[in-house]
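[Meeting: bench + compute handoff]

Bench side (C.D.) handed over the final construct sequence. Compute side (W.E.) agreed to return the predicted structure before the next meeting so the bench team could plan truncations. Sequence as handed over:
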Amino acid sequence: MKNLFEGKFGRYLLPAIIIQSVLIGGGFATGREIVQYGAKFGALGWLGGIGILFGFIVMAVLMFEFARKYKAFEYRKLLKELIGPFWFLFDIVYLLLAILIIAIMASATGEILNSTLGLNYWVGVSLITVIVGILNFYGKGLIERFKTFGTLALMIGYLVFAALVIGTTWDDAMAVLSSGDTSYMPGEVSIFAVLWTGILYVGYNLAVFPAALFTIERQKSRKESVISGIIAGVLMTFPWFLTYFSLMGFYPSEEVFGASVPWLVMLQDFPAIVIVIFGIVVGWTLVETSSGMIHAFVDRMEAQMEEHANKSLTSTQRGAIAVGTLILAMILSQVGIIDLISTGYTAMAYAMIAVFAIPLLTIGVYKIFFKKDEEIAVEEADSSNG
């Protein structure tokens, strides 16, 4: 197992798997995200998906290579290299967005576990809180293994759900696409509006990228960064298209497109066991998303403690931070999924584009392609001496 993680799998696939595992919760787990950021445009929505694919690939390649070149394996160091003294702005946006994403998943999970397994809302959420706390208690090694096998299981689950829905509604979906139907949206739909919605989707999901930084340490060349980034972009976008085509089979049904959890409505005519499995899968996505985002934040805090106090967080402290963050998210989850996604995600998308995407596409590109390794070594030496 150790050889697997330290070899080509760890260099090429693991960063993509970690990002995908964290993306699931905020990206497509409920289906509401795809309605808001693409499917509502009906036959034109796929253009947003193409933009999302290229956006994820570009951002993943640049972040992987920047992190590799500057040895920035936790996001505080990465942001200090990108935006200098303003790095704390990312900290604020990241934590707010992490809590928002976890809140949306908590709300969805509570609703789904209640309707599918009959569990009380707080029983299901409390169980997940304990699991996330344990994962952060034991740290990096357990999280890597948990996410590797968990993400494989989740992807199989979503493939099955999509296959069931698409297999029974394919003709309806093709009718929507061939007719150019965009009737769920009032007025004429512009291609710019669709593409911009895709940019916003990439924007708020940039919060999941730092969760993979601790895996980049294994990468030793630009080739590995590029290939791994391409794999990550494809892996992140594939479920978007699965969900999009599933939704097109019901377009423009208000019952589906107005639902808090569209997947639940799309699967309601299938045997009860399918709904139960879906409930388990979504519960698992909350665990993966929460543990990944909190792990990145805990790593950042640990790096600061080592720098200023020359000591690390204890396992108990790591677990306590995870549980505390989850409790804040549980309180926020009472606002409701639809409002949190439409308003919260959009606001955070603009913030994340400002503090992460634009610096990476400008300062990051300059430092990757025009700064020599010798200059970087001198800067690091000066920083250490300072």
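W.E. noted at the follow-up: The chain has a mean pLDDT of 82. C.D. will use this when planning the next construct.
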